[in-house]
Amino acid sequence: MTIIRKLMPAQVSALGDDEVEVIISTGQRARDGHIFEPQGCDLANYLRNPIVLWQHDPEQPVGNAAEIAVDGDKIRARVKFAPVGISPRADEIRGLVKAGVVRGVSVGMEPIDAEPIDAAKPRGGLRVSAWELLEFSFCSVPVDTEALVTARSEKKPEWKVGASRDLAIDDSDAWDGPAAAKSIFEHAGGDEFDPAKARQGFLVYNAAEPKLRGSYKLPIAHVVDGELKVPKGAIRAAASRLPQADIPDDVKKRAQSVLDHYKEKAGIGEEDEKDSERALKAKLTRALALAPRIPVLRRGLYEVAGLAHLLQHMGYCHDASEFEAAIEGDNSPVPGMIGEALVAVGKALVAMTQEEVSELLEGKDLEIEEEDDIELVEVTVEERAFIAAAKTPRVRAWRRGIALARAGRTLSAANEKRLEQAADHHERAMKHHGAIGEQHQALKRNMDAITAAQEKVRSAHEKLGDALEAAQKNPAEAQDHVERALRHHKAMAPQLDAGDEAQGDMADHHADLGDAHAAMGRAMKRAARCMRAVLDGSSTAASGEDGDSREIQKSGGDAEDGGSRSLRSALRCRVAALALN
Length: 581
Known about the structure:
By secondary structure, this protein is an alpha+beta fold. The protein has helices at residues 44-48, 88-98, 177-187, 195-198, 232-241, 249-266, 270-290, 296-328, 334-361, 381-388, 393-405, 413-473, 478-536, 565-577, and strands at residues 4-9, 19-26, 35-36, 41-42, 51-54, 57-71, 74-81, 104-116, 126-139, 149-152, 159-161, 168-170, 202-206, 216-219, 222-224, 227-231, 366-368, 374-376. It is built from 14 helices and 18 strands.
């Protein structure tokens, strides 16, 4: 048996307290593409058990169809909900439907006779001319926009103050509103609760429908040892929620009077509330005072180093995109776009470095001269000499950053040696960086050679094709054309060989490029270790020569990993200090 469900909004008209009138189906084409002709509906079996469900769930019946009939191009029904108190779900759905929140009706049916609406689209919508109604349900989302609840009987709310004024006070600030409401209904009789008892625990209630749990708002009491008591936490919670409650203003005033009565009874006054606010503010102030403070050096220059690291990676991406564009020859705009971003980020790095370094030096006893020399208060003569003895501006900036970070410390002979080693490693890294640039240029030359060879091969291939086509069109001269085609074919071979050779050279240069990149990474890592030893007072320092510096173009050995995360962080912090240059 195939069950089809058709969902539609519902229109409601005025009936009894437990009734609504609905249109369950129409003859119009629904959103799912089907048409169910009302005249073809078989109601015989349904009338034996006229059940009405919620969301087509057979375990959630909410009522019965007291009347149902075909009315022209519509099927109308009058739904009678289950009596109040029998089913909490039925009570809930009755309230939602009568309030106009739920307006959809979904019909479950079994097609008997159907044909495609459009014969050219047999898998499209169907015109169902005969079908059996199995059930219908109230649902949330309509498909048939004309199947509506057409009538609802709705009592006007009669909001009243329910809470009794003679309940005992529970000296507790703890409060759980939903749990309290549940305990009140259980105390009043459970599913068949007594409204007269239930309303005593709620600040307001709807007297028009006292048997519905949804008619009770703002619980103000809970059950303690079989007795309703009003805790201080409930008074404060109700006082904060009452202004937003959707009830008439006169009822709010009477409810506020009840709250004021219980505030006085519980000893809650304005000063008490102000004391609570002051206590909370003092607690937050103490928490902020105890919060750990982050040093300015770590906060500001760390972000500068992070931006510098990002700029470095963007440079790599720019080189890679240029390389790919050269290979593919597609005039890609990506390299230019990344280049513009590089310029913008570079300017931001310069501005951020100046700002953060200025903030770092502000208030410190440090002076920087306009010339390249610097004057450090409490820096020894040996340290100033060490900075001035740098051979290149880059090494001078390197030593300046170390001196600033170690201002006021004594530069020992061991530390001086480590800094010399760091500078040497850094110089070797820059040589490897230069080698990387040369390998990039070599790769570009290889790509140009490959492109030229491919162009010549393409030209020869076109001429070969022209010769063969001419031979086919003019058989009398076919021999001459074939000989010409053979000459062009032979001319292609050297160009193909040249392309293969250029590709082989490109592979070699690519390998050399990887080796140079790895060697640069090792040199930078050793420089970072030297600086870490100086700044942290460690006895461990990188020593020995970088073997790759002796053969930059073809560096040997296995590539090391990128180093530990802590070493990267140290390197970034030190690179940030170079901005002083």
